[in-house]
Amino acid sequence: MSDIQSQYDGARSGGRVTDKVVIVTGGSRGIGAACVRRLVEEGARVVIADVLEAQGKALADELGERTAYVPLDVTSEDGWQEAVAAAEAAFGPVSGLVNNAGIVHVDPIESLSEADYRRVIDVNQVGVFLGMKAVLPSMRRAREAGVAGSIVNISSTGGLIAYSRILGYVASKWAVRGMTKTAAQEFGPEGIRVNSVHPGFTRSEMTADSARSHEQAQHQPLARQADPVEIANLVLFLLSDESSYSTGSEFVADGGFTSL
């Protein structure tokens, strides 16, 4: 039996991500919270990193000792260093990162302000860069302890195609797609994998008031929006050793929208 097969069988015999320590940004609600729940269910210890303190603490309290909340503004390099240090202090070296935190601003290009554009870029794009940079030393320590590292960057179908009136969001999500590939090339020799996930229309606080998202979802092959857990299941797969030969790739969960 190969070492890879042994690793896979070992993961499947218990939780799929047992022994992994994972940071999930934007983990207090929506897709992030669904990821936290699924990872805990499958044996991981998870740090909920978010600016939404009350919601993050409530989720950590609900899920128990395998979770911890840390405040994190993903645009702060110092904040990232503190979050990784807190994760290590609570659970040990970090072996998984889900760069999920994101925002959207709706405006046509003609009236879009520079400040609003830059804010979306800072959170959605710069935040991913800072996260990957900050977690790398900890992932090296995890690797030395025999736990392989995996980073999942949450992009969007907006990182594959374009949508009007959300220029900053589309620009940032295309950037995340490219950044993922560069990081995969740089980190791969150290056994650290990096992939991007591209959700389609998903029920969340971000899309709750978007009649357009609901309407567009009705016209795709799977004529509905995704439940956040359906995206979380894909993230779980990419953080687990089941996806051990996947890196630098896009994983699309969009109900068939981009097939049209």
From TrEMBL:
* NCBIfam families linked to this entry: PRK07231.1
State the SUPFAM superfamilies in the record.
NAD(P)-binding Rossmann-fold domains (SSF51735)
GO MF annotations, alphabetized? glucose 1-dehydrogenase [NAD(P)+] activity
InterPro entries associated with the record: KR_dom (IPR057326), NAD(P)-bd_dom_sf (IPR036291), Sc_DH/Rdtase_CS (IPR020904), SDR_fam (IPR002347)
Q: Which UniProt keywords apply?
A: NAD, Oxidoreductase
Q: Show the stretches that span the lipid bilayer.
A: none
Enzyme's top EC category: oxidoreductase
Has keyword Amino-acid biosynthesis?
no
By sequence similarity, the record places it as follows: Belongs to the short-chain dehydrogenases/reductases (SDR) family.
What is this enzyme's EC? 1.1.1.47
Top-level taxon: Bacteria
- Report residue spans for region: Disordered: 204-224
Does Magnesium count among this protein's keywords? Answer: no
Q: Where is the Ketoreductase domain?
A: 20-169
Report what the protein is called: Glucose 1-dehydrogenase
